[in-house]
Amino acid sequence: MSTRLWYTILGLLLLIESGYLFYGGMIDEFSLSPTTALIFALSVNFLSLSYLHPQFKKKDERMKVIQEKGMFYSYFILLFYFFMFITLLQFNIIYLTAIGVVTILGALTIMTFSLSMVVFSKIY
Questions:
Q1: Residue 124's pLDDT band (boundaries 50, 70, 90)?
Q2: Which stretches are transmembrane (predicted)?
Q3: From CA 23, how far away is CA 115, in angstroms rounded?
Q4: Which of 14, 25, 59, 84 is deepest in the core (most CB within 10 A)?
Q5: Is the pLDDT at 1 greater than 80, yes or no?
Q6: Residue of 50, 40, 41, 49 whose CA lies nearest to 18
Q7: Domain ranges in the chain?
Q8: Within 13 Å of residue 27, how many CA atoms lie on the same side as its CB?
Q9: Is the pTM higher than 0.85?
């Protein structure tokens, strides 16, 4: 089977799992943990890789430009995430543990970089 198909299958399985965990946390069947966001971010990552696989298989100049632009803009978006979390935590708008903040920031990092590469593959 092709690599693109495996990325799609893994992405869909992780999407179903994160949906189940999110739904279970909403109806108080079990506690909603920040790892649900990380599982959702991995599903977004695998689905993005399945979309980008034919373009990244070529290893040409276009692929390098997409990766460079994705990293460049992801850096500034991540700075915005850090600023927002610091502000929200400082003024006690949200209450999270340290591991919750790190997990959510990790999930946002994964999703931001993956989705920025998808956006730049559409542009370039």
A1: confident
A2: 5-23, 35-52, 72-89, 95-120
A3: 24
A4: 14
A5: no
A6: 40
A7: 3-123
A8: 6
A9: yes
Average pLDDT over residues 85-92: 94
Q: How far is CA 106 from the centre of its chain?
A: 8
- Which pLDDT does position 20 carry in this prediction? 92
What is the rounded distance in angstroms from the CA atom of residue 14 to the CA atom of residue 44? 9
H-helix or E-strand containing 65?
helix 61-90
Q: Which among 12, 122, 4, 13 is positioned nearest to 53, based on CA atoms?
A: 4
The full DSSP string for 79-116 is HHHHHHHHHHHHTTSS---HHHHHHHHHHHHHHHHHHH
Are 57 and 123 in contact, with CB atoms under 8 Å apart?
A: no
* Beta carbons of 39 and 105 less than 8 angstroms apart: no
Task: Report the distance separating Cα 29 and Cα 49, nearest Å.
Answer: 33
Task: Tell me the chain's radius of gyration from C-alpha atoms.
Answer: 17
Which pair of tokens denotes residue 50?
């399945």
The tokens describing 42, both together, are 């991995």
